[in-house]
Amino acid sequence: AQSVTQLGSHVSVSEGALVLLRCNYSSSVPPYLFWYVQYPNQGLQLLLKYTTGATLVKGINGFEAEFKKSETSFHLTKPSAHMSDAAEYFCAVSDSRNTPLVFGKGTRLSVIA
Amino acid sequence: GAVVSQHPSWVICKSGTSVKIECRSLDFQATTMFWYRQFPKQSLMLMATSNEGSKATYEQGVEKDKFLINHASLTLSTLTVTSAHPEDSSFYICSARHPQETQYFGPGTRLLVL
Questions:
Q1: Helix-strand-coil percent breakdown of chain A, rounded to 5?
Q2: Judging by beta carbons within 10 Å of its beta carbon (0-12, 13-18, 19+), is residue A77 exposed, middle or buried?
Q3: Taking CA atoms, what residue in B is nearest to A49?
Q4: In chain A, which residues have their Cβ closer than 8 Å to the Cβ of B4?
Q5: What is the residue-level pLDDT of chain B in tens, covering all 114 positions?
Q6: What span, in angstroms and rounded, lies between the C-alpha atoms of B64 and B12?
Q7: Do A44 and B42 make contact, defined as CB atoms within 8 angstroms?
Q8: d(CA B89, CA B113)
Q9: How far is A109 from A37, CA to CA, in rounded Å?
């Protein structure tokens, strides 16, 4: 069975500071990994995904994540936080193209002016 | 990117009534759609997998007779909450699997049962 652990239910950063949201997963097979963002009262928007190939994945809005198999991690980063980045972020894993996503509990990102 | 819509975006109903929520993939065909439920400040909980032309697959603990799912076409799945009660109040989100395998999510439907 797969699982996702997001360390830190709430992360607060200053505007312009580095954003680091942590995600660790467990999977018995090579995983498909995703980061989604959710703004209040909205659905989820895909930020980026890793399926195969390059382990450093670039997504929208300046975010990127690196798949590290040895650490079973897929942390999300952004060099410089904007106020508009304040939202809930979910890491998700699946074990194939055809299975449902398993989500982490989410991390709420606050950006302080 | 691919677009998934949900209707209605919010609904208030009386206890005992049934509510239907629609999920549509607007610019692609989706043989598989998923229905999730999200409680305040919590993650998404998968309720069921909806496959076009066949019965939905429900997750453990989800009552199939209470949450009726119909995936009648490649662009439409519906979730009907039958005989709704206040504990069914929640944020319901659907997703559709794009042919390129990425899941795209709808904007969600907030249900309040009085």
A1: 10, 50, 40
A2: middle
A3: B102
A4: 43
A5: 689 999 999 999 999 999 999 999 999 999 899 999 998 878 889 999 998 888 899 999 999 999 999 998 999 999 999 999 999 999 999 999 888 778 899 999 999 999
A6: 22
A7: no
A8: 6
A9: 10
